[in-house]
Amino acid sequence: PLVSMRQLLDHAAENGYGLPAFNVNNMEQVWAIMEAADQLDAPVIMQASAGARKYAGEPFLRHQILAALEAYPHIPIVMHQDHGQSPAVCMAAIRSGFSSVMMDGSLEADGKSVASYEYNVDVSRKVVEFAHAIGVSVEAELGVLGSLETMKGDKEDGHGAEGTMTREQLLTDVDQAADFVKRTNCDALAIAIGTSHGAYKFTKKPTGDILAIDRIAEIHARLPNTHLVMHGSSSVPQELLTEIREFGGDMKETYGVPVEEIVRGIKHGVRKVNIDTDIRLAMTGAIRRYFVEHPAKFDPRDYLKPAREAAKKICLARYEAFGCAGRA
Ligand code: G3H
Ligand code: 13P
Ligand code: NA
Ligand code: ZN
Fold first, then answer.
1. Tens digit of each residue's pLDDT (9 = 90 or more) over 190-231
2. What is the band of 155 on the pLDDT scale with cuts at 50, 70, 90?
3. For binding Zn(2+) 2, which residues are annotated in this chain's numbering (predicted)?
């Protein structure tokens, strides 16, 4: 059944686990997530970004998630809109049937300029009022995603703050988080702790100064009933980078968020963990390998099958690690 995000995150909080929220753009990704969830009896959050809407179009995304609901009627599924840049975008998603939306007011509607705190409170509260009236959940974001190594806002996949940031901007402030949640009444709060979107998060395996898991613990101590969300939480597995390079890809040295650090975050109140890049890497590695090993093949089904199996493997591993098995 289609459920609100609040329902799943409340259950996760009561039982001390976290949920991966996977981005979806096409049928193969939806298939991989659902097959993994079905195998482990895990609940599902699928989310559509602005980029996904641009690629597939909102009707194709929505109907693929509706197809998953029909094909797996026993699994609770949240249809979530990722990074809504304005109340209007969120309201359009709610109207079309999404059970959860993110109002990302950390940036202005241009998706580039850091927003004022009052603007963020204002747009987030507005979406919460509208959404809650009809049982839809709202994720808001406080703090700017970006690297504590380079002090640059997150620009990897075309959205995120421009220019150089301060450490204050790149780490969600505890007092401000308490005020923000009180004033917006959001269901889940995305926080900035040094992660960023895309494959290039850290130039080395991250340590506490550039990946501030401790900040999660501080926010959770102050806001024990708020569901925290980690964005930019792909782990960028080295073996996937190796596979991509081995079969002709060109990717620089890079590191993601180690799964064990996410698990620490979950111990301290993280309930939703956003993952897109790891599925991209898994599919790309599998397709590159397939093309090299089977140069005569040309049916997309032949190479999309190993691609979706590789994506499923990532989903299985994250569901297991975050404690979702048997929770559906
Ligand atoms: O929010 C970030 C996700 O990785 C989605 O990225 O806008 O390229 O679809 P995208
Ligand atoms: P990654 O790029 O680390 O997978 O993060 C995805 C995300 O945060 C989507 O909102
Ligand atoms: Na989100
Ligand atoms: Zn994100």
1. 999 999 999 999 999 999 999 999 999 999 999 999 999 999
2. confident
3. 104, 141
Q: Which of 153, 123, 154, 128 is nearest to 139 (CA)?
A: 128
Q: Please state the pTM of the whole predicted model.
A: 0.98
Of the candidates 82, 154, 173, 278, the residue annotated as catalytic is 82
Q: Count of alpha carbons within 13 Å of 192, Cβ hemisphere only?
A: 29
User: How far is the centre of ligand 1, averaged over its atoms, from the C-alpha of 213 (Å)?
Assistant: 23
Q: Give the position, in ligand 2's atom list, of the atom nearest the Cα of 236.
A: 3
CATH architecture of the domain covering 5-322? Alpha-Beta Barrel (3.20)
**Is 82 an annotated catalytic residue?**
yes
Considering the chain, what percentage of its residues have pLDDT values greater than 90? 96
Cβ atoms < 10 Å from Cβ of 63? 13
Residue owning the nearest CA to atom 7 of ligand 1? 51
Ligand 2: nearest atom to the Cα of 276: 4
**Interval 246-283: pLDDT, tens:** 999 999 999 999 999 999 999 999 999 999 999 999 99
Q: Which residues contact 109 (CB under 8 A, 6 or more apart)?
A: 85, 86
C-alpha 246 – ligand 3 centre gap (Å): 33
Per-domain residue ranges of the chain: 5-322
Q: Name residues contacting ligand 2 (CB within 6 A).
A: 23, 82-83, 197-198, 231-234, 274-277
Mean pLDDT, residues 114-125: 97
What is the SS3 string spanning 148-201? CCCCEECCCCCCCCCCECCHHHHECCHHHHHHHHHHHCCCEEEECECCCCCCCC
pLDDT in the model for residue 163 = 87
Positions at the binding site for Zn(2+): 83, 104, 141, 197, 231
Per-residue DSSP letter, 40: H
ipTM of this predicted complex?
A: 0.95
Residues that constitute the known binding site for dihydroxyacetone phosphate: 198, 232-234, 274-277
Whether the CB-CB separation of 279 and 35 falls below 8 Å is answered with no
